[in-house]
């Protein structure tokens, strides 16, 4: 006698009884084995129960794909119990990526046309959840028929299914547009709700549909008015508001229809005013409706008075004690900040207060809105507030806050000095969270403000002396000290208090940066270069600097080692050139990825190119090979070609090499063959009009005394160039 | 839009959501920007806390946030009516019924019906339909166990009537 299978509840009990993850897995695996066996045996009586168990197990995260075919069988069964579970299984286990999903199309078709209401409902639900485009195409007419069936239960589901079908197959809009007008006359709220969703979908997809549906604005206004004046009806009211869901949907549709359309906007004006003033705001439902109304008023061509009312309502909500209301108010204000900027500005103080909220959802919204509200007249005050926020805000908001402040500073900085101060403060507070280009931007800014060099270097020195852990700050400070070290030591500067700095202190600070384990390799590079530059800026002797530089000549970091060795060489062999090489940087043009970082290093990089052509060459010669293939057949595709360093070495950037073609350098003639008096040489010419073209001339010379006969010249072409085979010319005999 | 995530991703989303929601205090707003796994920035999580349970809805920007709060309330109240004072165990042991109720409220990612009475009436009708279809295999557990426990009188093994000896066969246990 067969052991009767576990009931669903019993299985759940067993699973919950498992004390460890491993035990649970064991129970489930055992049961799944039984279920699989049962599926194999094809027991129709218990199939629905087996699938129900499988779906539970699936919810816990265990694989259940072997139940997919059983869903099909259950859906095809005449019993409602079977269909219910089968359709649920289809929704949970099948989607358009599984081949099996198409197989239920036929069952759905049968159920839609012949099933009872409940069965039709199941089929529609499944179709709208996982129906693929092919399924939707096949079943569109069935669904269309159901739109006009007598049962409101089926009709409301059919309407929403239509929305899904249009999303999957937009051409079906033509089928589902005509019934909408009649459906709007329905009294059943469920059908109305679905119809409005359907109309919104149609309008959003096609401007023609939008125009068509503007006709129904008066009807919508009427429906909404009826809802407002119906009074308390237990059926659909939520805390005293009649069907707020339907009201909200109607208001949304009105927004879509009234946007940029005077006439429609006019028709709905009175109604919107009525809703805005009469809605009870003591409970959430009323607030939901009011919000939607406000958004609609602000989105359509409403009367000025109404707009003011709307923004004021939002402002009031910002002061509400309910956090949810404040959240939605902030979100709505953010949407308005472009179109009604001055109106939103009036609420700036409240928005700034919201920055102090402990609730991160709120403070995030407040931050976005605050940044959007910064303009040239309030930039100082706002930046102050935002800096304050930056100090205490949660980590996930820091990056956004920091870059927001920097962006605002860039756009609206009243003075350069203020700008530098602001960036400095951001780097000190949240250095680890700023974007990578902040360093480059700041050095660019400082470099360009000559009158502020002394001020900048002093402030940066002080900041660095306090804290060497914030990398962007350290990098900028090191750069500045290197560049303007002489100004630092001069002692006086009008802008801030006089600061007496000794040479030894400066060198010590830079050495600390070099040695600190907190410094990134890039930072160390900055510090070393700064030290080097100081060798020409400081008046004392350079022994200390020379010592440091020679120590780093054996550093494990290859980049640092290379620099140190080069600087050391500079001291020992090229001392006469040192001052010229290390003089002050010219201001580099802003723009593109080549900013100060590369420009500043360019001198070193030019040396790098000369010192180590090998690593760059294979890249470049591969590139030249590529170019050759485009040019045409060439015998010397295999011959390596030396890379000439480009003539203007100073500004070649390592980054450029792989991307841009190398400048055209003349290629010397090559003697490729010499034997028994016969010489073959190749000469290369790039016509100036078409630099991508390379003309190769083969010259055959007979230096022997006698004649050369039966001379055949053949060119071997790599397969890729087959297309370019023509144009070689016929083999010729050459006699001399 | 009809495409499920693979099972592992589904579970990851559930876990991430759980952690995000659990961190929330009780006096802050009910809206959470979604975690990294849930769609793009257009999605947010809206949740409500009832006793030991969190009901979390993931919605996009086309839904009214405050409206969803009410929708969650409608759903929970409907569960309460269908299960008669619903508790956590009801939801665990009747997860299929929870699905069926949810299917009457939200369909294809859109709000279908918010009238609680209609939803409850529909559920009751469908449950009655299921019960009426049930054969032996769906017989109420109580009936089966009642028959099992009937006190059958002792059947004598040997009935002696004068000279006749009738052996009564051993009847198998009623299973």
TrEMBL record, chain A:
Keyword Zinc (UniProt): no
Protein location: Cytoplasmic vesicle membrane; Endomembrane system; Golgi apparatus
Region described as Disordered: spans on this chain: 592-614
InterPro entries: Adaptor_Complx_Large_Subunit (IPR050840), AP1_complex_gsu (IPR017107), ARM-like (IPR011989), ARM-type_fold (IPR016024), Clathrin/coatomer_adapt-like_N (IPR002553), Clathrin_a/b/g-adaptin_app_Ig (IPR008152), Clathrin_app_Ig-like_sf (IPR013041), GAE_dom (IPR008153)
Alphabetical list of PROSITE patterns matching this protein: GAE
The GAE domain, residue ranges: 665-736
Entry similarity comment: Belongs to the adaptor complexes large subunit family.
Name of the featured protein: AP-1 complex subunit gamma
GO cellular component assignments: AP-1 adaptor complex
Membrane-topology descriptor: Peripheral membrane protein
Pfam families the record matches: Adaptin_N (PF01602), Alpha_adaptinC2 (PF02883)
Keywords from the named record: Cytoplasmic vesicle, Golgi apparatus, Membrane, Protein transport, Transport
GO term, biological process aspect, one: vesicle-mediated transport
UniProtKB/TrEMBL annotation, chain B:
PROSITE patterns reported in the protein's UniProt record: CLAT_ADAPTOR_S (PS00989)
Annotated organism of origin: Equus caballus
Coiled coil: none
Membrane topology according to the record: Peripheral membrane protein
Major localization class: membrane
Origin: domain of life: Eukaryota
A Pfam cross-reference name: Clat_adaptor_s
InterPro entries attached to this UniProt entry: AP_complex_ssu, AP_mu_sigma_su, APS3, Clathrin_sm-chain_CS, Longin-like_dom_sf
GO CC term (a single one): Golgi apparatus
Database matches in SUPFAM superfamilies: SNARE-like (SSF64356)
GO biological process per UniProt: Golgi to vacuole transport; intracellular protein transport
Function, in words: Part of the AP-3 complex, an adaptor-related complex which is not clathrin-associated. The complex is associated with the Golgi region as well as more peripheral structures. It facilitates the budding of vesicles from the Golgi membrane and may be directly involved in trafficking to lysosomes. In concert with the BLOC-1 complex, AP-3 is required to target cargos into vesicles assembled at cell bodies for delivery into neurites and nerve terminals.
Family that this chain belongs to: Belongs to the adaptor complexes small subunit family.
Domain named AP complex mu/sigma subunit: residues: 6-129
Name listed for the protein in its UniProt record: Adaptor related protein complex 3 subunit sigma 2
Localization, UniProt: Cytoplasmic vesicle membrane; Golgi apparatus
UniProt keyword terms in alphabetical order: Cytoplasmic vesicle, Golgi apparatus, Membrane, Protein transport, Transport
